[in-house]
């Protein structure tokens, strides 16, 4: 089997699995098959089975009708915009001019990347210790808030 045939079979198996997931999502667990779980083997049989499953799914839910209606209204949603090239490709002289114009920024970026590569990464031990102390810090903040509320209540009672 060549690569093309494998790619086609892989694509069909992906389509079938996605369709099975959609069927499960929209209509629940599948009913037991009537034909002793015989899967179609040839490509035309598999295409027919996928089309048949889609037709059954469309009959069970109006969701596919809504999707088809939206697609008919907004046809440009799933089609990429046309890529029309209005400018001619650059000549060698124009390419050279662009490279010369950007040469200083290229050397600057190369220098910055080299300095980043040469700099060492600081140790994370302090951050790890601080992260380990986070629950204790949160508890202290909670206690401080409780104490501030008690002090405010005592001041209110004593008339201060």
Describe this structure in words.
The protein has 160 residues and is mainly alpha-helical. The chain has 5 helices and no strands. It has helices at 3-27, 43-60, 63-73, 92-118, 125-158. The model has no long low-confidence stretch (mean pLDDT 83). InterPro entries: DCTN3. It holds the Pfam family Dynactin_p22.
Write the layout of secondary structure elements.
Blueprint: H1 3-27, H2 43-60, H3 63-73, H4 92-118, H5 125-158
Helix pairs in contact: 1-2
Give a quick rundown of the structure:
This protein is mainly α.
Rg, please?
A: 33 Å
Helix tally equals 5
The biggest beta sheet is recorded as: none
Low-confidence region ranges: none
Secondary-structure class: mainly alpha
Which of globular, elongated, flat, extended, rod-shaped describes the shape?
A: flat
Query: Can you give the helix content as a percent range?
Result: over 70%
Strand content: under 5%
The count of DSSP E runs of length 2 or more, i.e. the number of strands, is: 0
Whole-Å distance between the termini? 91 Å
GO biological process, one term: cytoskeleton-dependent cytokinesis
InterPro entries: DCTN3
